[in-house]
């Protein structure tokens, strides 16, 4: 008896080998997107990276589970025999600048993954391998949506930073003409990838180093400290409309926390348990949502980008720290200021500002998970590296880092900060009138 045999293309070991490869490639992509996030200035691109790397991480997580299921009872997933393929894939990080990196994602990498996942689905059997089919269908839906969002962000980036277009085009040309051939067929069980066939330098690429200073879009009102109480906590948060504006400015300035989470992903992700990436990607995405909350409220109130004060000192404070201390800094800030979130949710609600109240409520829900992430992973990395410090020790160290940066504020910067504050409040009053 012979039934339709088109269903029987891939056996379990074939599927497991290919899905394992997808897992490693996407995981690498999560790390690379995190690596480029702090160094990306263009606003829409900066906002997209954490969100989309979090989406990709959902697929990474699901693929990992699926590979483990198919290879049960094995619990380890090793890279072999795809070391050269991943080395070749990793060349993507060596883009000349952030614009080239994100355009490569949108114009080369994601379209390639779309095509490869689609071909895999054509070969997979929806009956026997149903769980994989669902994972890849969701991944494809994500990719389609991502491509549309990247298109929009990139069109704007090309207008705002036209000076990056030439080097971006050269990089894209190199990927299309050489890199794609060097990685070979992603569905071939015997990968023929050869990382030496693509030379990044030939197309303007360069060795990658994560930016330890937070890059900001030039269209904002750029300051080192976003609001007076960021430089001097004794200034206080204020009340009424001042607190509304202050909270929105602090929210948009949480871009620093998304950068710090991205740096933790990049610095610590490759050597950690798989769950770390899932938690840290979510953390990074949450912080960029908090940042977007502030940006959206300010925009809705009528502020232009040039009227929104944006700084980077909290991320920059970790520039000379080690990777675990950077994780400690974000943990310290999260646990220190968490109580203000629910207080302000109530305050804004009573005050009649339902949107600020709503944003604070969801922010608070996120922060409670982050406090857990912080203490759990800090303990994990300290134990793993035999570091005798305890999570509580980071209080002093974080405060010292921040104090050191505050101490560098010049008289001129202090004066500018107060001018920024006064002009922002004056503009708020004007907008009420309008
Ligand atoms: Fe936050
Ligand atoms: Fe947080």
Structure summary:
The protein is mostly helical and 434 residues long.
Can you walk through the features of this model?
There is one protein chain. It is globular, with a radius of gyration of 23 Å. 68% of the residues lie in helices and 1% in strands. It has a two-stranded parallel sheet. By secondary structure, the protein is an all-alpha fold. The protein is built from 15 helices and two strands. The protein folds into two domains: 8-203, Ferritin (Up-down Bundle), CATH 1.20.1260; 221-433. The chain has helices at residues 12-36, 43-70, 83-90, 98-123, 130-160, 165-183, 228-231, 240-252, 255-268, 274-301, 313-316, 323-351, 354-384, 394-407, 411-433; strands spanning 221-222, 309-310. The protein starts with 11 loop residues before the first helix and ends with a helix.
Tally the helices.
Answer: 15
- Name the average pLDDT: 95
Number of strands: 2
Largest sheet, order of strands side by side? 1-2
Please describe the structure with a list of short key phrases separated by commas or semicolons:
two-stranded parallel ribbon, Ferritin, single chain, 434 residues, mainly alpha, binds fe (ii) ion, 15 helices, 2 domains
Question: How are the elements arranged and paired?
Answer:
Blueprint (H helix, E strand, L loop, with lengths): L11 H25 L6 H28 L12 H8 L7 H26 L6 H31 L4 H19 L37 E2 L5 H4 L8 H13 L2 H14 L5 H28 L7 E2 L2 H4 L6 H29 L2 H31 L9 H14 L3 H23 L1
Parallel strand pairs: 1-2
One fe (ii) ion (FE2) binds next to helix 10.
């Amino acid at each position: 008896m012979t039934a339709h045999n088109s269903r029987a293309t891939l056996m379990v070991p074939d599927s497991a080998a290919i899905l394992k490869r997808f897992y490693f490639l996407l995981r690498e992509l999560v790390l690379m997107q995190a690596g480029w996030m702090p160094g990306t200035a263009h606003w829409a691109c900066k906002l997209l990276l954490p969100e989309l790397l979090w989406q990709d991480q959902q697929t990474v997580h699901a693929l990992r589970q699926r590979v483990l299921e198919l290879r049960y009872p094995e619990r380890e997933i090793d890279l072999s025999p795809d070391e050269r393929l991943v080395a070749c894939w990793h060349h993507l990080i060596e883009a000349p600048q952030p614009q080239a990196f994100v355009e490569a994602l949108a114009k080369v990498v994601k379209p390639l993954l779309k095509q490869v996942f689609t071909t895999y689905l054509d070969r997979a059997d929806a009956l026997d391998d149903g769980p994989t089919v669902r994972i890849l269908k969701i991944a494809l839906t994500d990719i389609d949506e991502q491509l549309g969002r990247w298109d929009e962000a990139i069109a704007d980036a090309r207008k705002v930073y036209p000076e990056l277009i030439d080097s971006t085009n050269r990089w894209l040309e190199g990927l299309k003409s050489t890199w794609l051939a060097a990685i070979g067929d992603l569905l071939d069980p015997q990968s023929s990838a050869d990382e030496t066939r693509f030379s990044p330098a030939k197309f303007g690429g360069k060795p990658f180093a994560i930016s330890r200073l937070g890059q900001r879009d030039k269209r904002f009102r750029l300051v080192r400290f976003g609001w007076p109480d960021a430089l001097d906590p004794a200034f206080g948060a204020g009340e009424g409309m001042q607190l509304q504006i202050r909270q929105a400015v602090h929210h948009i300035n949480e871009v620093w926390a998304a950068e710090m989470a991205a740096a933790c992903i990049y610095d610590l992700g490759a050597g950690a348990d798989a769950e770390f990436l899932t938690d840290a990607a979510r953390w990074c995405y949450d912080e960029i949502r908090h940042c977007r909350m502030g940006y959206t409220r300010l925009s809705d109130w009528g502020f232009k980008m040039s009227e929104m004060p944006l700084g980077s000192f909290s991320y920059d404070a970790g520039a000379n720290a080690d990777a675990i201390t950077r994780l400690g800094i974000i943990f310290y800030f999260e646990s220190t200021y968490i109580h203000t979130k629910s207080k302000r949710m109530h305050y804004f609600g009573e005050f009649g500002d339902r949107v600020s109240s709503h944003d604070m409520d969801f922010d608070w829900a996120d922060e409670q998970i982050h406090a857990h992430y912080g203490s759990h992973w800090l303990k994990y990395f300290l134990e793993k590296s035999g570091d005798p410090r305890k999570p509580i020790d980071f209080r002093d160290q974080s405060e010292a880092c921040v104090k050191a940066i505050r101490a560098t504020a010049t008289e001129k910067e202090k004066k500018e900060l107060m001018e920024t504050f006064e002009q922002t409040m004056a503009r708020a009053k004007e907008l009420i009138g309008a």
